[in-house]
């Protein structure tokens, strides 16, 4: 969505275009505010003096209320913009003129500036609340200056501004009933920004040396230049070490996370193994039942042996005569009878041989 705002009134009091300066007229913001000429009010009618009550009621209807705000606006920041926003919204129909003092006046009465006057002019031209920028604004507002630019009211914060030998340069404006106060933004000012730069000078000098500025451009001595460059190298090494530490911490965290998972899985497997072992070898386990069944079978076999087959003939033994062990088979072919030691032995052996032949026959 394109940002819109009121039409800037180059000729804010022109009767032919009374609606150009009204709040309802809108146009696209594509151009900065204009620079003031000798006077930006071309109305030939006498400039009527307004009271604050009349201006807040929206009168006069044929022209906007011309409000003037001046300042140095060095290092233009949000505090400046908020003050101009308040000045712009003081009345229902406001034409805001912003006066910016030159470098010569500022250096004479206040001190050295960071930005040049041209840079400060351009910063104000690109603020959305500004309708007109007046260059080389006077340090003290005279009645002639107010009449020349047809200024109805002057907007500034209500704190007495002592400068150029005066306790308050806006004292006569307040006495004339033309002063409208605005509120300062706490926590930010040009002095605060400069204090930050002075406090952290070494940091900014090292940063700009690293970006390519020379020591001469930064008004840095040779020794300080070498010191800053060495500090930059040390900072780079610290950054590398910090990066390695972060990566190491991340790696250790991942290892710990995986180790925790492995330990958890190992515990689960251990519990499963112990459960299976107890189920198998425990007091009421499966292995005990199997062992008991096998023991019972073996005991039953020992107590009741198998019976002999029915078709085997029974062997009757004499109760008075035990069976003699079988005699070893006779070896007829190779065995040679030992010679008898006596004639009675020889006759006995011969008779036994004859009985054996008869048996074979």
From TrEMBL:
**Compositionally biased tracts (Low complexity):** 345-354
Q: Which GO terms describe its molecular function?
A: choline-phosphate cytidylyltransferase activity; phosphatidylcholine binding
Q: Out of the domains of life, which is the source?
A: Eukaryota
Q: Region labeled Disordered — which residues?
A: 303-361
Write down a Pfam family by its short name: CTP_transf_like
The Cytidyltransferase-like domain covers 68-196
Q: Which Gene3D superfamilies match?
A: HUPs (3.40.50.620)
Instruction: Give the catalytic activity.
Output: phosphocholine + CTP + H(+) = CDP-choline + diphosphate
List the EC numbers from the record.
2.7.7.15
User: Keyword annotations for this protein?
Assistant: Lipid biosynthesis, Lipid metabolism, Nucleotidyltransferase, Phospholipid biosynthesis, Phospholipid metabolism, Transferase
Name the pathway it acts in.
Phospholipid metabolism; phosphatidylcholine biosynthesis; phosphatidylcholine from phosphocholine: step 1/2; Lipid metabolism
Q: What does this protein do?
A: Catalyzes the key rate-limiting step in the CDP-choline pathway for phosphatidylcholine biosynthesis.
Q: Which family does it belong to?
A: Belongs to the cytidylyltransferase family.
Protein name, UniProt field: choline-phosphate cytidylyltransferase
- Organism per entry: Stegastes partitus (bicolor damselfish)
Lineage of the organism: Eukaryota, Metazoa, Chordata, Craniata, Vertebrata
